[in-house]
Amino acid sequence: MGRSESLWQEAGRHSVEIAKGDSQKPQSAPATPADLLTITLYTPTAACDTYAGEPKAIAADKAIPQIVHFLLADQMPHLLDFELSGYRIVPGGKGNTVTIDFRRKPDATRHFISLSICEQRVLFGSLRETLLQNPALGIDDVTFTEQGRPIQL
Description:
The chain is of the alpha+beta class.
């Protein structure tokens, strides 16, 4: 099994429910240094005109779910006022693409189309930049859907 295939072991149709302020991570045994992968997480700068990178060590066999969880559950509530109830990570057929399928809360007042350019960079851009700019992940394309339908911005 190749490195990028092993990164997908835990990512296949990975679903997570998000509660505002919830930073609970999936329970797993502590990773040893040999099991860690250092990636760069990208988030928009204060001016929201570019992305700043921050190195982070994560478990290699759960890299993609951990990246998505960190950016959505840990970072987003502090940077964006948008009501997500959860998401699914859906690997593409060739293994080098990923779709993040969002779920808004049923009573959410905002829609994806209402996000400002900066808010779009926080939500979509951070995920896209992080997944595409870390070669060890082997991701060539990232798409976003809401309950299986492409998100139109």
